[in-house]
Amino acid sequence: MAGSILHNPVEISIAMSKPPEKIVQQAFLVYDEQKIPLIQHLLKEKQYRSVLIFCSNKLNVKNLTRDLRRKGIKAGEIHSDLDQGEREETLVQYKSGRLPVLVATDILSRGIDIDTIDLVINFDVPHDGEDYVHRIGRTARAAADGSAFTLVNPKDQRKFQSIERLIGKDVTKINIPEHLGEQPSYMSGQRNGGGSSKKNILKTKEAGISN
């Protein structure tokens, strides 16, 4: 478009920022039906002060929030179906610590600055690397440390590998707990742009969260 309407246009590209090194990034290879049980397990296994979970659509936000509440986990939700007053009230509760878990769409991936968030979970793989950086950048604010977990189903593996290329980092893959069943294999040959369909599980750490 620029070439068709401008004379000798100059293009200026701004490099995408990388996630802070102090964020512990980990990924879990899962099937869709394992996502909610895995999150419930993670939240029960360790006590976090403040958890922010990102979903790519409001239906997943509603379903996950409902299931967490049924398991006795105090969780709130923010998405486009809520009016501004409802969103603000939920945020007030979250910032004050009365609401330890907040489930949201990407409406909160930018513009929220809370120093106490120590865990970000990507329920869905973000659409691109920039969204990923903004999401996990909600943790490890100021001088604090933080963790970022991403749940990767088979159809999102290519997308996640693209994110890894953009951030210049191979995110550590973690085994899911045995009681959740067998997890999908990781597709090799795509990380560096290859087209091989050979399946292989990358080196993974044993189940359990390292910080």
UniProtKB/TrEMBL annotation:
Q: Which Pfam families match?
A: Helicase_C
Q: Which SMART domains match?
A: HELICc (SM00490)
Q: Give all residue intervals belonging to the Helicase C-terminal domain.
A: 37-184
Does Iron-sulfur appear among the keywords? no
Chain coiled-coil ranges: none
Organism superkingdom? Bacteria
Cite the residue spans of the region called Disordered. Answer: 178-211
GO MF annotations, alphabetized: helicase activity
SUPFAM superfamilies attached here? P-loop containing nucleoside triphosphate hydrolases
Keywords in UniProt for this one?
ATP-binding, Helicase, Hydrolase, Nucleotide-binding
Q: Which family does it belong to?
A: Belongs to the DEAD box helicase family.
The protein's name is C-terminal helicase domain-containing protein
Organism listed in the record: Niabella ginsengisoli
